[in-house]
């Protein structure tokens, strides 16, 4: 299956760069069995910390050493001492009071006789990095498992291709679109879906309808009452009785659920409904001039709580020949590509989908915000 390759900023990347194929390791442990200390690599310029946890194995007990990502550290600090302790720990780190930090963290850990799931990755160097501290009821649905299942389905479908995707420390995004576009003026529109997932408790596994503009690589994600999405929670059995290193995850029936969901996403009726909505957005026009264009974009950007930098970029990217709903969303989704984080791009792509899917009355009210 063809994969389009773009890699600068938050443009679509190759799947090999998006899906982490590293060896995952998941542990159920009580935090009072975890110890925290400075890494031998830690110095005045870098604060790198190691954890030790003792877990039971078939042949006895095993001591595991690992590092924690910033997200893991923040989650752990909050769990053992609340938001105030997290701020205090950050202050001690920033002011290089490492000895005091170790003492306080280990004291709080020793008081936390509660089990959690620790999700980690083993790197090529053999070192383990913990990415998340989660509930023992967390259902593991990993990116590589989803990718293998979706690819198995889509590789048989000659009408769609993989556009690529993006990833962040929190979520993964993979997008599929039609091979043949619909041409609207100078734009080639590709229709399809995206799947998103978080392995570290930062959201659901979701399938959502997606449109890509081949002219500029803009994207729109659709998730509203009118456009149904598929969502699966990361919640399941309680692993407390399985203290130690967990076996590879197996979500029963996941292959069947994904197959049915993907087939529904790419059904002719669904794609046609999406096409009609996007084509209709070219008919929702507004009267303006150069000065008012800027006011409209600024008002809409503030309405969606976007940053001043992104709004400024959207003003610059707006095509004044396209004073309609599609052209307005294109300014924002184009600006989002220039941001360094794919999470932000996805957020703005969803705003683009929302703007396009508005009724004429709703769109006119949005434009009126600049009055």
What is this structure, in a nutshell?
The chain is 38% helix and 25% strand. By secondary structure, the chain is α+β, with helices and mostly antiparallel strands.
Written description of the protein model:
The protein has 371 residues and is α+β, with helices and mostly antiparallel strands. It is 38% helix and 25% strand. It has eleven helices and 14 strands. The chain has helices at 15-18, 70-94, 98-110, 143-154, 254-265, 268-281, 290-303, 308-317, 325-337, 342-357, 360-367, and strands spanning 23-30, 34-38, 49-57, 60-68, 115-122, 128-134, 160-167, 172-178, 182-184, 187-197, 205-213, 218-222, 230-232, 244-245. A seven-stranded mixed beta sheet has the order 2-3-4-6-5-1-14. β7 (160-167) and β8 (172-178) form a beta hairpin. α4 (143-154) packs across α5 (254-265) and α8 (308-317) packs across α9 (325-337). The N and C termini lie far apart (48 Å).
**Main sheet properties:** 7 strands, mixed
Mean pLDDT: 86
In DSSP terms (H or I, runs of 4 or more residues), the helix count works out at 11
Distance between the termini: 48 Å
According to DSSP, the number of beta strands is 14
Major beta sheet, strand line-up: 2-3-4-6-5-1-14
**Strand content of the residues, in percent?**
25-35%
The helix content, as a percent range, equals 25-40%
Uncertain segments: 1-8
User: Which structural class matches the secondary elements?
Assistant: alpha+beta
Using the CA coordinates, give the radius of gyration. 24 Å
Overall, the morphology is globular
SSE string, helix = H, strand = E?
Answer: HEEEEHHEEHEEEEEEEEHHHHHHH
